[in-house]
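[Automated response] Your request has been received and processed.

Submitted sequence:
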Amino acid sequence: MEEEIKGLAGFVVAGSGAAAALLAWAPLARVNVEGGFEGIHRDLSVLYVDLPLVAAGGALVPLTVWLFTLRRLHRPWLAVVAAVAGAALGIWGLTNWWAPYQAPEFGYERAMHESVSAPAVV
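Generated structure:
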C-alpha cells in the first residue's frame, strides 16, 4: 500500500508542476497569441512549440527531484518539499530566461526603410 501512495504522489507532483509552469508561462505568451496592437505580431508557434515544452519541463523537473530525493533519503515528505523547491526554481528560471519575441509596435520598420531611402535635404 505504501508503494501505491508513493506512486500516486509522483503523479500529483508531476501534474501540479506542469500546471504551475503553464500558469506562470501563460501571461508571458499572451503577447504572441493576441498579437499586440491590432494583431500585427501574432505568433501562434508558442502554442505548438513552447506550450508542450513548458508542460513537459514543468512535469519532469519536480518529478525528477522528487524521485532522486526519495531514493536517496527514503523520506516521502522531504521528497515533496524538495520537489516543490525544484519546481519553484524551475519556474523562476523559465520566467527569467524565456521571453517572447516582441517586435516594435508603431511603424518602426517603415521608418527604417524611409530613413535609408530618403535623400538628404541640405
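Summary generated for your ticket: The two ends are 87 Å apart (CA to CA). Residues 2-34 form the longest helix (33 residues).
If you did not submit this request, please reply to this message.
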